[in-house]
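Appendix B. Chain record.
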Amino acid sequence: MISFLLVLLGFMMLQSSDPIIRKQISTPDQTLKRITTEDGLPSNQTISIVQDFEGFMWIATRTGLARYNGVSFRNYYEQADNPNSLSSNFIERVMTDDDGEIWVMTRDGLLHAYNRHNDFFVRIYETGFEPILTRRDIYDVFGTSESGWWIATWNGLYYLNPDKTEIQFIETELNLGYITSYSHNKDEQTIYFTSFRRGVFQFDIESGHITSLEKINRHLSIYATNHITLTREGHFLIVEHTTLSIISKEGQLISSQNMGGGKIYHIITDSDYNTWFIHGYTIRRYDDKTGEVFSYFRIQGALTLFVDTSHVLWIGTGGLNLYGYGLYLFDTKTMRFGYNQESFSDIAHSPLIEALEKHSFEYQTGSDWAIVSIKESSENISWFLTRRRGLFRYIRDTDELDFFPFLLEPNDPRTPEAFDFIVLDDETAAISTSRGVVNIHAHKDEVSLIDNPVLFPDFQGSGTGMIINKMEKAAGFYWFATIDFGLFAYHPETGETLSFTHNPADRSTIGINNVTSVSEDPVNHERYVWVGTNLGGLNRIDLWDNTIQRMHDVSDFNAMQINSIHSDGEAGLWLTSERGLFYFDVTTFAYNRYSVTDGVQGTYTYYSRNQRLSRADGSLLICDYNGCNSFFPDAINPNTHAPAIGITNIKVMNEPVLPFSTEWFTHGANEPVSMQVPWNKNIIGVEFASLEYSAPQKNRHKYRVPPFIDDWVEIGHSREITLTNLDPGSYKLEILGSNNDGIWATEPGVLFIDVIPPFWMTFTFRLLMFFMLISVVGGVVWLVSNRKYKAKLREMEYKMAVDNERMRISRDMHDNLGSRLTQIQLMSRSRKRKKKGEVLEKTLEEISKETEGVIQNVSQIVWALNPENDTLENLVGFIIQYTETFCQRAQISCRIKADENFPELSVPADKRHHLINVVKEAVNNAVKHASCSILRLNLHYKQGDMNESKLSISIEDNGAGFDPEQVKSKKRNGLKSMKSRMESVGGDINVESSQGYGTKVQISCSI
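C-alpha cells predicted for this chain:
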C-alpha cells in the first residue's frame, strides 16, 4: 500500500541501534545565517562567543574582539600606546561573570575586565606586573563585583578580589591534574570541574574546600573526562571523548552511550537544558526530556557554540590550522516549518505514477498530463487533476484508481484546460476549466459541463482571461478567478451570478483583474470572501452590502502579489506572496511574515499552479521552486522572546560622544545611562538596536520622551532617533523593541537626558532675580519716598536759603550800606557847624564818594539777586568788568586772561556772592594796600566729572607784598574772611606773597 501522506511529508528519519535515538534533521542552507568579515567581523576564525547582561553578543577572533548588535559590529583591537586597550589581537576566550560583565583573555596570557561605561579594558596583573595566567588557559570567570571573582584555569582556581588588585591561588593537597572543564551552580555556590587524569571534583565557594567525587568517578574513564554540566533534574552530564553519560549526584549511572565517530567537544547547555555539542563537525543536541540526540547540520571547521537568550545557536568556525568560515546563526525556536527538498511536481507525480503503473494504466508524458492540483477528501482518498486529460481518484484502503476524462476527445481543440477543482465529498468534485465547470459524479459515473456563455465565454484558445488556479465554495457560490476579467461567482442552486472587476477610478473595487486565489472568511464565511490578486494585493468582499476593501488601504499589510490563500478555520489566513509566507488575522488585520530566516524555503514568485495542499490530518503543504514546507498551522507559535534595547551610539550636535565619558555622562554600575548636555547643544541623536537575533531585520521600534513626547511613536525598523531643540530640563528617553513576530518588550531601554539651562534660566539665578526684583521694587518705593523726602527737604532748604539770603542781604546792607549812610549822615552834621568854603567843598566830595560806594554795593546786591545772572559765563563777565573798572579808577594796568567759552552752567546765588566778594577783597588789597602798578586776572574752567569740574581764578600783582607769617601773627581779618567765604561754598583759596615781590591769590571752586 502506497502511503501518500508519508511521501508528501518527505522527512528523512534516520535511526541507529544506539539506545539514544538519533534523528537527522535535514536543514537547508537558508536556515543558517552566515556572518563573515564582509559583514564587519574582524576575522572568519571565531574562537569564543558570549552574551553580556545588556544583550550584546561578543565574539573572540584571531585578529580582534567584536561586539555585535544583530546589525553592525564594534571591534576592539590592540593599541600599543594605550594601556586600556587589549594587549593582543589574538583573543583566546571571551567570558561573562555572574553579573553578565565581559572578561577577555588574550594570547599573551593577560586577563582583561571590560569597563562598559568608559568603553575600555582593565588589564589584570599579578605582583610584579606579570600576566596573571601566562601559559595557563582560562575556562571561565564566576562571581560578582561585590564578592570578587573565581577564575577557572587549566592549572586550577584563582580568586580575584573586588578591587581587582589581589589574586590568590586556591591551594589544595589533592592532585588535580589537568583541568578540562568547569560548571558553576549558583544556587549551591558550588563549582564542579573535571580533570583529565583525576575525574570530577567539587569546590565549595563558601568554605574554599575541594573534594574529589569518588562516587561519580567510579563510573568514568577518568583519563578521558573532558566536560561536565548539570541537567534539568540536577544530574551530571559528563562527556568522555565520544561517550555521553548521565549520572545522578548520588552516584547512580542513569545512562551511558558511545556516540561513535569523532571526539565530542565544546558542550554548552541552554536555558531549556538542551545540551548542544560538536561531534566531529556535526552540530548535535541532547534533549534530557526524551534522551534523544538530534543531529542538525555539518559545518566544516565548527569550533565553538553558544545559545543566546533568544534561543539562537551561534556556531564559530576556525582553529589554529584552519582559515575559518565565519560565524553561523541558527534559530532553534523559530525554524517552525517542516522541510521537504522534493519539488512540488515530484511530490505530485510520484504517487500518481506508482498508482498508474500498478493498475497498468497507460500514462503518457507531456504538458497535457501535468498535475495542476492535488486534493484530499479524507485521509484515505486523494485526487489528482491533470491539465487536459482528466481527474484521477485514488482510494488507498481498497487500492482503487478511478479516471474521469474530460468530455471531448484529446485531440479536439475545444478540449478545456483545467486549472483547479474542489472536492464536494468522497464521490463528487467540480473542476474549473477554460470552458466552464465540469462536475464529476463518481457514483453515477457521470461527467457534465456547466456551460454558461455569460460567465464562461469562449476565449478561442488565446489564453487571455482563462479561469485559473482557484475555485472554492464560499457562501454557497462557486468562485472562479480569471487573469484579465476579475472574479466571478455562480450559485448552482439558484443560478445567481456575481462579478467583481477592477475599476481604476474606484478604490472600492478589487485591486486588479488578475485574480489568483479566493477563500471564504474563517469567522464569518456567509458574509466575507477574501480575494488574492497579482499586484493588486489582498481584498475582502462583503457580500451583505456588496462592497470591497483593499487591505493595503486599511492596514499596513503591503504584500501585493498574493499567490494563494488558505483558511485555518479559526481566525487566520495563510497567504503565499512575493514577500514570503504570511499569517493574516481576519479580525484585527494583524499579520506575521515568515521568510527563509524562519525556515520557509523561499518567496513565492509564481501563480500558475496550486501551491498548497490542505490535508486531512490538518497539516498544510506549501511549495515553491525551492521545495515544500509541511506544517500544522496551529503549531506555529510566535517567538515570545522580547528583546532588550542596546544603545550603540550617541551624538551631540551630530558629533559622536561614545565611548562614555564624564564630560557627558553620569552613571553607576548596571544603571541606565544618564547624560548632561548644555542648553546650546540640545540636538541629540541616539542609535540603538533590539538585541534579538532570530531575525534582526524584522525587529521594530517605538519610543517616547516624557514630557517632550508623551505618546509612543512607532518608527518601524529604523534604529536611530534624533531629538532636536530640547528645552532645558530633564527627559527620559524610553525605547521599546519587538522581535520578528511583533512581540514587544515590556521594559524599555532608558536614556536619561538633562539639558542644562543657561545661567539666566537656573533656579539660583531666578531666585536671585526674584530677590533683585523685590529689591528693585523696594528701591523704587524707597526712591520715590526719598525723592518726596528730598523734595520736601529741598523745599525746606530753599526756604532756609531764602531766609539766609535775606539775612545775608540784610547783613550786607547793614554792614555796607548802613555804615556808609551813617558816615554820610555824620559828615553832614559835622560840617553844618563849620564854615563854608573849601571845607564844604571837600565834604561834598567825600559824601559823593561814599554815595558812589553805596550805589556799587546796591548794584552788586541787585546783580546777585537777578536769576538771569546765575550762569557761569555771567559770573565771569561780572568779575572781569569789576576788575577792569576798579583798575581804571585806580589808574593801574589790568591784564586779564580768560577762556574763550565757558559752559552754560548754573551757579547758585550764595556761591556767586561769596566768589564776587573774595575777588573784590583781593583786588582791593592789591590796589590799596600793595600799591601795585600791574594787576593780572586769570580765569580758567576745567571740565571733569560732576564733582571735579572747577573754576580757577588767579589775581596777581607786582606790589609791595607782605610776610604771611606776620599777617598770621597780627590776625588780619581780611584774609580770614576770604578763607571763610571759600570754605562756606566748598572752595579753596591760597595766598602766596613775599615782601618786595608782590602777591598772588589763587581761588578754586567746584561749579
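Further analysis of this model is presented in Appendix C.
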